[in-house]
Amino acid sequence: MKMKLKEGKNHKVYCVREIHLELNLERRLEALGLTEGTRVTILNNDKKGALTVRFRGTRFAVGKRIADHILVEEVQA
Prior knowledge:
The chain has helices spanning 23-32, 64-67; strands at 3-4, 13-19, 39-44, 51-55, 58-62, 70-74. It is α+β, with helices and mostly antiparallel strands. It has a single domain (3-74), classed as SH3 type barrels.
């Protein structure tokens, strides 16, 4: 079931399914390694401000507006 990244829970792993952002922003995320199929772990989503996520071994802060346009599915353990 697809959901927005910003709706994710702490310490859960998600797989990116779709990214719907303006092209320059989408390309920037792609350069960082965030593409469809990437596994993302939410480290901190306290619902205020940015989310802290880890993908490809690196921690990133992702703003709510960006996280609102990344669709993910939870990865079952």
